[in-house]
Amino acid sequence: AHENRGLQSQPPPEEQNYGPAAAHVRQGPFVSVSRNGPAKRDYLIAAVLCYANLINFMDWFIVPGTLIDIQKYFELSDGDTGLLQTVFILCYMLAAPIFGYLGDRYNRKIILGAGIFFWSVVTLGSSFISESYYWIFFLSRGLVGIGTASYSTIAPTIIADLFEEGKRTTMLSIFYIFIPVGSGLAYVLAAGMADVTGDWHWAFRITPCMGGLALVLLILLVPHRTQRRTAAHRALSISGTIRVAAERPDVHRTAKTTWCQDVISLAKNRSFVWSSLGLTAMAFVTGALGMWVPLFLYRAQVVQGIVPPCLQESCNSSNSIIFGGITIGTGILGVVAGAEAARRLRKINNKADPLICATSMCISALCLYIALMVAQTNILSTFIFIAFGELFLSVNWAVVTDILLYVVTPRQQSTAIALQILVSHLLGDASSPYLIGIISTAIQAKNAHSFQWNFWSMQYSFIVCAFVGVFGGGFFLLTSFYIEEDRKEAEQ
């Protein structure tokens, strides 16, 4: 959907668009719109888009925040419950390139507004579905994923076009930081509303109201046509994680190549292949944790006798609130720490980036394994080790992006990002919730029904994440063997 266009002579600024502008930019001369600096209105528009991004990711994780109640209400097995998030992410993943294509060619404000309105209406409607129509609830989550894709792929382009290079990086970083913040707040909001009202359905009625406010602000403050930059900045943003790329306008294709030829070339880039597999392992673990941790903790507490089994209409949601806070804190701290560690260690080791990723993945896997093992005896220790596991996972997000940007030639970066995102979603966070769920269901089916086996089934299925994390560390370690060679080749 994001086609390499190059520079055109005197293009109409209201028509030309190169998709999302990049937050990470290679050194080199740029052709940019002459400005005297961003106006206050630009910052106000960026604030509106950040607010909408917050709601976007709150809607994404509203189901895991009330998972216990939803599972009981629709009488779903663990396998069917995991499918809820899988349906959402698959629809999101498949719809995002379509909206990227539309955003390149049509009015972005209209597409953004339509997306916000669509996902808000569908989310609100899903709160009125009765227990006998569970399939409609599954369908609604897929539709919400489509609406979410319309926003995630286009909103960064408007922010990128409002600011010059230095400010642009800062503003996009602020925009992206609302991903972990919104994800964590989703658990807090969902659990809080379920506790206050005694009905989990109300969690699905708050974000549509917030979305309505975002739509009004979008209509009032965002101009109908935003200035498109004339430099060939491009990026593709798809997923529960955003990756950005930039292209120097002074770099031109020396030969016409097809998409298939680019894919074949990337398949020969060993650093790209191994780092993409490492990213897929990260997405797998992150998707499973985001979906199942609150339910796993609840089952552990039932086995320990800390909380009674949930038989009433609304279950105890304190685990979702705590996990939401952990997600917010570790997400922000991890991204910042990872970027800073990479900046410092690159000065003394050219292989620092993949080694940081390999180390943090292995430490994260160890922390998650310990959390699983102590869950039946000590809930506090479980929370602590889950927090460290998420922290070390978050360290890698920014670093993996940098690896792709300097081992892939500029003219292949959009194709590389598209492939990496497709694989990481398809084999990662789109698959892991369902896989963990069906393993848990299979274990329960072979044993007598009890609260103890409900816990053990989830514990045993979760161990898959620890092994995947170790494999992810191995993939990043393999990346370190080839990264210097591939970086030099890309620079040439």
Summarize the structure.
One of its GO terms (molecular function) is transmembrane transporter activity. By secondary structure, the protein is an all-alpha fold.
Task: Give a verbal description of the structure.
It is a multi-pass membrane protein. The chain crosses the membrane at residues 43-63, 83-103, 110-129, 135-159, 171-190, 202-222, 272-293, 321-342, 354-374, 380-405, 417-440, 460-483. This is Major facilitator superfamily (MFS) profile domain-containing protein. Residues 1-20 are annotated as: Disordered. One of its GO terms (cellular component) is membrane. This protein is an all-alpha fold and 492 residues long. Helices cover 72% and strands 0% of the residues. It contains 18 helices and no strands. It has helices spanning 40-60, 62-65, 67-74, 78-105, 108-126, 134-152, 155-162, 165-197, 203-221, 259-267, 270-304, 318-345, 352-374, 379-394, 396-407, 413-429, 432-445, 451-491. The longest helix is centred in the C-terminal third of the chain and has 41 residues, at 451-491. It is globular, with a radius of gyration of 22 Å. The relative contact order is 0.15. The model is unreliable at 1-35 and 230-256 (pLDDT under 50).
